[in-house]
Amino acid sequence: VEAVRSLVASQLGLALLPDFAYRPWSLEQERVEARAIKEPIPAIDIGLVWRRGSRLEWTAREFIDIVRDQSRLRARQHLPR
Question: Which terminus of the chain has fewer Cβ atoms in its 10 Å neighbourhood, N or C?
Fold first, then answer.
């Protein structure tokens, strides 16, 4: 998050961040401006990657399960009726 905030403060981009990540300055003391989003943010596709056969911690397995459940739920919501 700090790297993203620094890029924004250096005018090298913009970012969508949750409210809890906002702070009005970067580590370099450059000003960062926030703007409220009035329209719903469209969904984006993401991917999860891990090494085949690797032993995953329980937290990673739980996260993967949650993502899979949400993906299935979202797919069902967008099926033609």
Answer: C
